[in-house]
Specification:
Blueprint lengths: L1 E4 L11 E5 L7 H17 L3 E7 L2 H5 L11 H10 L4 E6 L2 H4 L3 H12 L2 E7 L12 H11 L2 E5 L3 E2 L2 E2 L2 H9 L3 H8 L3 E8 L4 H4 L5 E5 L9 E10 L12 E8 L10 E6 L10 E11 L7 H19 L1
Parallel strand pairs: 1-4, 2-3, 2-5, 3-4, 5-6
Antiparallel strand pairs: 7-8, 9-10, 9-14, 10-13, 11-12, 11-14, 12-13
Amino acid sequence: MQRWHGLDAVPPGWGHCVVTIGVFDGVHRGHAEIIARAVELARERGVPSVLLTFVPHPSEVVRPGSHPPVLTTIVRRAELVEQLGVDVFCALPFTLEFSRMPPDEFVHYALVAQLHASAVVVGENFRFGHKATGDIALLERLGQTFGFTTHGVPLLREGDTPISATYVRSCVLAGDMQAATRALGRPHRVDGVVERGDQRGRGLGFPTANLRTDPWTAVPADGVYAGRAYRLDEWGRTVPGPPLGLAAISVGTNPTFEVRQRRVEAYILDFDDDLYGDVLGVEFVDRLRGMEKFDSVEALVAQMHDDVARARALLA
């Protein structure tokens, strides 16, 4: 898969393609349906499929401080859409100037003049252009003018609820990892660099990898979780192969020791190598319990042994 940063990266002599557009944060099952339709249509027409997304999140540019929790880094997003068969991943810088572009101007500039789209595939609730004034009906009319077809994909639902990045975030922030997994089609993952913490876990017999995450990362509710840890390379891409190990993951402030800083700490089962400075991806499979304050270190250690045993049994 080719990775482009902006439309200036479109190579000379670029022909027609099928384009799908969106933020695609999380690359959840609803996104996968849209992407699959674009990939299928591109193959039918014998042209490349292009996924057009935006960095940073548009809401942060239009309404600074309103950035939603991020389900996937841009690197992870590219990795996931590549698995779905996309030929080109284009991250378009989203600026205040770009946000003011009228819908018809955006279509002419991005989809026609730069990408030469023969078809555009989007979700049925797709909005675009200045103040999100463009909708799928307008896209269809513009397609008739400029010579591309428009394909709206119905929203996928979980019961009566449409699967969206907002819905997945609500599941993650509530600690409902089973619901998040159903919506995503895989466990939610938090990526970060392993940094030196208090090293208290090692003294208790449970050395943990303390993750420094990016701002706005969608971190699950405080508690203890069963999951898996993966090695990532320096760019944040998943290293091929099996997971580094099963994990019992603590999220919160560790009230037993009156720690104030909220942390993500993963105890990787049957693993004792030095990970400081390494980049890890930690998957959250299920929540084992809430965060508790224990009366003694002995009580905490006993509970940690139980957490590890439950995580091992659940993940087996």
